[in-house]
Amino acid sequence: MNKVLGIIPARWASTRFPGKPLHPIAGKPLLQHVWEASRRAKRLDHLIIATDDFRIAEGAFAWGAEVAMTSANHSSGTDRIAEVAAKAKQFGHIVNIQGDEPMVDPKLIDRLVRQLQRDRKLEMITAAHPFADPREAESPHQVKVVLSTKNEALYFSRGAIPFARDTAAPPQYFRHQGIYGYTRDLLLRFVRWKTAPLERAEALEQLRALENGVRIKVVMTGSGSPGVDTPEDARMIERLIVSASKRSAKPRR
User: Distances in Å between the alpha carbon of 215 and those of 2, 83, 136, 155, 243?
Assistant: First the structure.
């Protein structure tokens, strides 16, 4: 059972940006950009938007997406996709695609799936990239990951890790990208585990997996796809999307 289901969790309620999934960016709702990019991934056998809000569902139906209505009581996107995965018994792997990253790379999705399918012992995978500006690692809003020599996660933190004791030779910092692939079995186990101390301290649920002994493979990329947390982020990403569209529209000589 090696079929792969991509799930995009989406919710209306956001403290900083209510209604974010349907916010227009370059002529389309933010969530539609995510869905269209994800559809270009070649290794997803199926793609579903998971939401608890009928406004999001109606919008997604309008552009042709399949939608799964989920409970309004979920505290995270992981809980939301697990509800869908619990009923999707024909799929062996699940990819959790962030609903607020309209420039998600379909090739990255394919890389995650390829590694999951190659390594039968691998239960969880994610991605990271070097910070272009090391000073950004100081922000608690940018999650950092420390890696083993096998490119497996040793720890995730909102703090700048590793600590730079020798400021003359600062370490390289890696920004964690919020995309995950799991075996369906691990995902269903994960949401049953109690919140662990490190997860509570950092407010990072991937630490729950590490605290329970899960090996997390980290795929390295040259850069990441920016997320939308505020209206200002949306305007910045709109400029990037419009600029990229203009470049791709230019005739080749």
Answer: 20, 23, 27, 11, 39
Tokens of 221: 């990329």
SS (H, E, C) the chain: CCCEEEEEEECCCCCCCCCHHHCEECCEEHHHHHHHHHHCCCCCCEEEEEECCHHHHHHHHHCCCCEEECCCCCCCHHHHHHHHHHHCCCCCEEEECCCCCCCCCHHHHHHHHHHHHHCCCCCEEEEEEECCCHHHHHCCCCCEEEECCCCEEEEEECCCCCCCCCCCCCCCCEEEEEEEEEEHHHHHHHCCCCCCHHHHHHCCCHHHHHHCCCCEEEEECCCCCCCCCCHHHHHHHHHHHHHHHHHHHCCCC
**pLDDT, tens only, 232-241:** 999 999 998 8
Mean pLDDT of 134-153: 94
Q: Does residue 202 contact residue 141 with C-beta atoms inside 8 Å?
A: no
Token pair for 67: 């939608």
Task: Evaluate if residue 135 carries a pLDDT over 90.
Answer: no
Q: What is the CATH number of the domain that holds 48?
A: 3.90.550.10
Range of the domain at 75: 4-249
Q: How far from 143 is each of 128, 136, 155, 204, CA to CA, in Å?
A: 10, 10, 10, 9
Total domain count for the chain? 1
Encoded amino acid at 85, one letter: A
> With bands split at pLDDT 50, 70 and 90, how would you rate the model's confidence at 145?
very high
Most confident of 12-26, 202-216, 239-253: 202-216
Residues 6+ apart with CB under 8 A from 105: 37, 221, 225
